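Session log. Operator J.P. requested a structure for one protein chain; no other inputs attached. Running the standard single-chain path with token output.
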Amino acid sequence: MMTTIAVNGGALHVRCDGDRARPTVVLSNSLGTDLSMWDAQAAVLATRFHVLRYDTRGHGASATTPGPYTIDLLGRDVLALLDHFDIERAHVVGLSMGGMIAQWLGAHAPRRLRKLVLANTAARIGTPDGWHARACAVRADGMAQIAAASPGRWFTPEFVARQAVVVGSLQKTVRGLDPQGYAACCEALAGADLTDDLARIQAPTLVIGGSLDPVTTLADACALAGAIEGATLATLPASHLSNIEAPDRFSDAVVGFLLA
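Structure written below.
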């Protein structure tokens, strides 16, 4: 089922799969992608869970609302979706920006969570100056340069050479994004530092790191796992979008953790 839900002054594009009577898994996408980035994981998870995935505000078919955006706002969007579907508690799986949203939920809405999976993310990603510069660039010049550079940030050279169709499809998604929505999410990342929130996370947590990730490094993953009490770490031989570069191993790690 695909639908559009009004939340917090905007509208989010949502897709649900699997049996609604089963526990819900929310999938939160990375910057520059949409809910289709989770296609492989949704197909696996929907055999055991109710899967709710959505396009983050300013991405895909979700509305671009006037800024500023914050991680707090993006986290409250998820809570509004849970409320809409009358879901008391859910597992949350987030990658990169989605992983920061998941961290915020873990710290600020613990009663709504079952388990957390934080993939290819960190308590702070990049630098404020870098994000503000990128936001200015896309507002001035559009998404073409971001799309051209995205394979090098997201994947290993071997994957780019081997999976040209997959990479090209993701670049098409980037080119089609609203520059204003993308820029507003860059500014949300510029202002986000969840370091002091990590000790508040109580939900059982799996951190997934890519051993070849240049954006959120394996050291970032180790630091995240070390700061969250009881968290476990899984390392995949992949770059930043590890769920796409190593889909089977990613899905196995998530399903095994959620069912444990």
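Operator note: The domain at 2-259 is CATH 3.40.50.1820 (Rossmann fold).
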